Each structure stands twice: as structure tokens, then as C-alpha cells.
């Protein structure tokens, strides 16, 4: 179907690179693999992600999928080493810094940056999957002199991977990920840091809220310091705004200024409503239904069979971790108008629920 | 079974008060209801949560469940108005400030504070449930002169409600909730605030991480400004520490100090590992398995039937909101050693998975 895209060379057979290679192979595209680690290369080939690149191979598209600190060098090498018409893209988390480093490159018109918003807490080719990008946003970030043919080739790659293209300039992209990813990550790490060394009987009061807030803070510090460090201008700008607002919060708390505190909290509520909803549409009003579920295999299946029979679609689900009890609380989020119906259906099957 | 606890008077027939009343009624305890709103009182009685208190009724235990700003007044009224042996507790989110306000009360020995760690985004008696507290932590916070009989009565109430008692001094409680709830809430609100008014094509890159970080920021600003304002000393102290650490992060980002940044992020990782795991035990290493699931009723039931048949217990589950596609990604968290087995079981049933 998209065989005219190939051959595609993937430089860096880690999680992201190998996943892209697998998606291309699934579409019948010839894939050439390059990696400084012969072991990664063997593993990725063994998984059916493509064949090791030979000196005579000339790729039509090179996808650079190396760690953030090596992006600019690897992109330059790809532009230098391939054919006159070879398109080069990368999948790095930061777009301006590598582009700045490449500004004087004679073949820059053949380069278009990109960034798939997907990942896993695992890394390496064994964690790869052709489905890693299905339905995920994938930023395409042409610069001022990018060729149209290069932009089209990268858009085809995004399509082959089943992702949803989002077109942004490199500068806009970096501001966007500072806001939607890097600053939230740093704030999550700051909250998590306050829990390190806290008294266990204080931590016994931990609820779902702080678990949610600190979840992303569990990510690899080395990788995230490269990502955030590579986007320092955008991150520092936004972080200064947050620090100034934190000072206002601190002042309101210290002065007992309830009106000020409430207005800062209301600003946060407005922000949560700005997040795009499922399927990219406006956020739909959801209601939570809680169900008590015995904590052993089979009970969740029984619950979801009864949920399925009710005909009410589940927007989200989470299992609440309860200290000290062999019973779980499952939260089912459904459209606001359907909660009463779901509760009635589940209670008629003997489930203990509350909203 | 615990009928000797009664009669229990519940002051304030909102979500928490009515839920406690329902749990007591379920245990066969006589429940007396008081509320300034005749409508709440009628609704709660109608739900079977108890009967309106009459002048001749003398409760053995009074549970004060009113908004934070009215706690001290309502606790004092309960100590003044009831019998010489009546025990008084409250369920407020903050413990020191009301106690300070009551310091000179002649009957203070009959008061023991408490705080169930449960709630709902809904409020009012109609949202109440006898199961709201099942398996949740419930702090019991005696002060220096609390009678032992009073502490025992409150512990019985916690047991009747199916919650897990956590004994703390009022001061420790307030420090604990500043750390596990109030400061995380404020930080979540600050992150959410940066999304308000952001460009929609920037927000298109929003992933699950920032959704998690900002989830609690959707809570009612009026209620949270009362809660946080009532714990201002503990919150301000910890928030100052966080602000100082945020300044270090900002400095590391601005100076390109990767080592410093990485060490601050590693501190966050240590904090996420300090959070108590499921069943209050140490955190178990979990692995995530992702499954692509068509987004319509019935598919989740089919998935969980296959999960149940695999015999692998699910620690947590979440549905990833994907923009633009009618397919959901369900993340199943399982013990690290069982992930390979689960993937094999699901793929044999035709599910598309990745780790």
C-alpha cells in the first residue's frame, strides 16, 4: 500500500525505532536497520523489523531514533550519507535545539522533524510493537525551508504507523511539550520528592489523588533530564510563570486570603476543562460509579460482563488501591446521563456500588 | 453487633454524614439526624439513614460532619448540648485549628477528632453510600486530654464503617494531609492553570501524563480553599520547601546543569517508591500490558473474560483516551513476573497487545 515510501532506514533500533520499523514492515515497506549496538540490531531483525543496512542500500526515507543528546549529529550524518533525494526525519522529544545545531547544513531542505507522542516505561527493541502509535498524536514540524515532498513523506510515515498527525512549527512544538509534558513532569517530581523520607504513618493517609499527581515522576531521570535539558528555554520560561503563581498561592495561604486562594484554584479548574476529550472532541461530562470488587481473578471479568450487558459505554476505569483490605474499589467513568442506569443494572446483579 | 455504640447523632446530612449514618443503620445502630436544611434532613431520612433528632433524644456519640469553617462551633454546641457522657467526634479534613478554637472548652475530654479519607466528586445526601468508607484509611486524632472511652467509641465507629483506623496526633495529621493531599492539590492546580487559555493545537499533544497530574485540580475551589485555608501553617511550611526546590530546578534548567536536574528527578523517583502499595504492603513491581480495544460496549467484557481465564491478577487498569480514533488502548498493570504470560494468553485470543 505504502511501498513507494521505502526503503525506509531506521537509525536506532530501540523501542521507538523498532516499533516504527515493525509498522513499516506490516505495510510491506522494505526496512533497513542501523544501530551502534550489534545486539539491538540482531534482536530487531529477529523480530521481523527489517534487515541490517548494507553499504549499497539507498533509503528513500531515514528515521533517526536515537537519544536526545545524539540527535543533531545523527541527523547530519543521515543527510550527508544518503542519496540526493533521501528525506530525513527524527522522532526526538525536542525540535528547536537539533534544528539550530543543523542550521548551516547544505541539505537541510530534505529534513523535517517529527515527534510521536507514545512510549512505554520499558525500553529496547524487545518492548517494540507495530501498534505503539495507533491513535496517538504525532507532531510533524517542518522548518521554513523544508521541501513539500519531505513533509509529504513524513505524513505518509505517520499514516503507516496509524497515528494522528499534528502540524506545528518546531518552536510551537517545543512550547507545546513544555506545557503538556515537561513542566507537568517537573511539578510531579517536586510533589513526589516531598514524599521521600516522610513518616510511614503519615503516608498511610495517601489517597488516589497524590498517586495520580506523582505517577509520571517515576520515569527514568537520565532520559528526562536529557529531554527537559534539551528544551531548556521553553521549560524555563513556563516554569518561571509557575513559580510566580506559586508565590501568589503561598501568599494567599499565609495571609488567610480565601478569595485569592479560591480564584487560583478556579483557574486550575478552568485548565482541566481545556484538556481535549476522548477522540479529540470537547470534554464530555462524566460521572463516576464505584463498585466494590473482591480482589481475585475472575471478578473483574464478571463485572465487565455485567457492564457490557447494561449497554452503557465506559469512558475510563481505574482500580483504587485500598490499604489493608482484600476488596478493590473499581471506578467506572461513564457519560453523566447514564450513571443512574449503570448503577441500577449493576445492583440488580448483586454488585455493591456507590457514586 | 455494635448497637451499644448508639444512639449516634449525625450533625450535617451531606455526603459524608449521611454515608456514616447509613453504615450505622446497617449495623443496627439507632441514628439521629440534624441538619440546618430541612430538605437534606428529609432526603437522608427517606434514604433510611435515621430519624430526625427530637429534644428528648440523648446520643451516646455525636458525629459532626459540617463544612470546615463551621467545625469548631458545631463541635462546641455538641459538647454543650448533649449528655454528660456523650462522646463527640468530627470528620473534618483539618484537625489542629478546630481543636485550638476549643482549647478552653470545659468538656474537651469527651472530644476526639477523626478524618475519613474518602469522598466523591458529588455532594449531598443523595450521593451517600454505606460503603463509601470500605477499606479506606480513617485517621483518629486524640488530643492530650481525650478520654480513653472517647477514643474507643470513635474506633468502633470506624470499624462499623469498614474503614482502616490510622492513629495520629492532630498536629501529625495536619502535617500528613498537607503532604499527601493539600500541597499535591495546589501543585496540580498550578499545572492545570498553565493549560487554561493554551492554543488548541498545542493541547492536541496532551498525553496521559498531564491528565493524571491535573485530575484532582478539577475539585470544587470553594471547598478546597476552606480545607487548605484551615491548614495554612502546615501547608505554607511544606509549600515553602517545594518553592525552594522549584528554584533549584529552575536554576538547573537555566544553567544546563544536567547532573543537578537528574538528581532532582531521582529524588522524585524515590518519592514515588515511598507510596504504600496495594493492601498497605510494600510496592510491588508491576509491568504494564497495553491492549487495543474497539471502543464499544461488550469489548471490555470480552477482554476481562480473557484476562480472568488467564489466571493473572490485575493490579490496576486504565483506558487511554486517544484523540481521533474509535479504538481504545487499555493498560493492564500486573505483577512483573506475570506480564509475559498475560500477553501470550491475550494474543492467543486474538487481542493486539504491546508492553
Automatic annotation (TrEMBL), chains A, B:
Q: Does the keyword Ion transport apply?
A: no
**EC number(s) per UniProt?**
1.3.1.12
Describe the reaction catalysed, as an equation.
Answer: prephenate + NAD(+) = 3-(4-hydroxyphenyl)pyruvate + CO2 + NADH
**What is one Pfam family matched by this protein?**
PDH_C
Tell me yes or no: is Oxidoreductase among this UniProt entry's keywords.
yes
Q: Name one GO molecular function term.
A: prephenate dehydrogenase (NAD+) activity
Q: Which is a GO BP term held by this UniProt record?
A: tyrosine biosynthetic process
Matching entries from Gene3D superfamilies are given as: 3.30.70.260, 6-phosphogluconate dehydrogenase C-terminal like domain, NAD(P)-binding Rossmann-like Domain
Where is the Prephenate/arogenate dehydrogenase domain positioned along the sequence?
Answer: 6-283
PROSITE patterns assigned = ACT, PDH_ADH
- Taxonomic superkingdom: Bacteria
| Pathway note | Amino-acid biosynthesis; L-tyrosine biosynthesis; (4-hydroxyphenyl)pyruvate from prephenate (NAD(+) route): step 1/1
Assigned keywords, A-Z: Amino-acid biosynthesis, Aromatic amino acid biosynthesis, NAD, Oxidoreductase, Tyrosine biosynthesis
Domain named ACT: residues = 288-355
PANTHER family with a match to the protein in the record? PREPHENATE DEHYDROGENASE (PTHR21363), PREPHENATE DEHYDROGENASE [NADP(+)] (PTHR21363:SF0)
Family recorded in the similarity comment: Belongs to the prephenate/arogenate dehydrogenase family.
Protein name (database record):
Prephenate dehydrogenase
Amino acid at each position: 500500500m505504502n511501498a513507494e515510501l521505502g526503503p525506509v532506514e531506521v537509525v536506532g533500533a530501540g523501542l521507538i525505532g523498532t516499533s516504527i520499523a515493525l509498522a513499516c514492515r506490516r505495510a510491506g515497506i522494505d526496512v533497513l536497520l542501523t544501530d551502534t549496538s550489534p545486539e539491538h540490531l540482531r534482536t530487531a531483525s529477529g523480530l521481523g523489523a527489517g534487515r541490517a543496512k548494507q553499504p549499497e542500500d539507498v533509503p528513500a526515507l531515514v528515521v533517526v531514533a536515537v537519544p536526545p543528546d545524539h540527535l543533531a549529529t545523527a541527523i547530519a550524518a543521515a543527510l550527508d550519507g544518503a542519496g540526493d533525494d533521501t528525506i530525513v526525519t527524527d522522532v526526538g522529544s525536542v525540535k528547536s535545539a537539533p534544528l539550530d545545531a543543523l542550521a548551516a547544513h547544505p541539505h537541510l531542505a530534505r529534513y523535517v522533524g517529527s515527534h510521536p507522542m507514545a512510549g512505554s516505561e520499558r525500553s529496547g527493541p524487545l518492548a517494540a510493537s507495530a501498534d505503539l502509535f495507533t491513535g496517538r498524536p504525532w507532531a510533524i514540524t517542518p522548518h521554513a525551508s523544508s521541501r513539500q515532498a519531505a513533509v509529504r513523506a513524513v505524513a505518509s510515515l505517520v499514516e503507516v504507523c496509524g497515528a494522528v498527525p499534528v502540524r506545528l512549527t518546531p518552536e510551537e512544538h517545543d512550547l507545546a511539550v513544555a506545557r503538556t509534558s515537561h513542566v507537568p513532569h517537573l511539578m510531579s517530581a517536586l510533589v513526589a520528592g516531598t514524599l521521600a523520607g516522610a513518616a510511614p504513618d503519615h503516608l498511610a493517609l495517601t489517597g488516589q489523588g497524590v498517586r495520580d499527581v506523582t505517577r509520571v515522576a517515576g520515569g527514568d531521570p537520565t532520559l528526562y533530564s536529557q529531554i527537559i535539558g534539551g528544551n531548556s528555554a521553553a521549560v524555563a520560561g513556563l516554569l518561571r510563570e509557575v513559580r510566580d503563581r506559586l508565590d501568589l498561592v503561598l501568599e494567599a495561604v499565609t495571609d488567610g486570603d480565601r478569595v485569592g486562594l479560591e480564584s487560583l484554584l478556579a483557574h486550575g479548574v478552568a485548565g482541566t476543562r481545556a484538556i481535549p476529550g476522548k477522540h479529540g472532541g470537547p470534554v464530555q461530562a462524566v460521572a463516576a460509579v464505584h463498585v466494590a470488587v473482591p480482589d481475585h481473578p475472575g471478578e473483574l471479568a464478571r463485572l465487565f460482563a455485567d457492564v457490557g450487558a447494561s449497554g452503557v459505554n465506559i469512558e475510563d476505569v481505574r482500580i483504587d488501591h485500598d490499604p489493608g483490605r482484600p476488596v478493590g474499589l473499581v471506578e467506572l467513568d461513564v457519560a453523566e446521563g447514564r450513571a443512574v442506569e449503570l448503577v441500577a443494572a449493576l445492583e440488580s446483579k448483586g454488585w455493591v456500588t456507590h457514586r
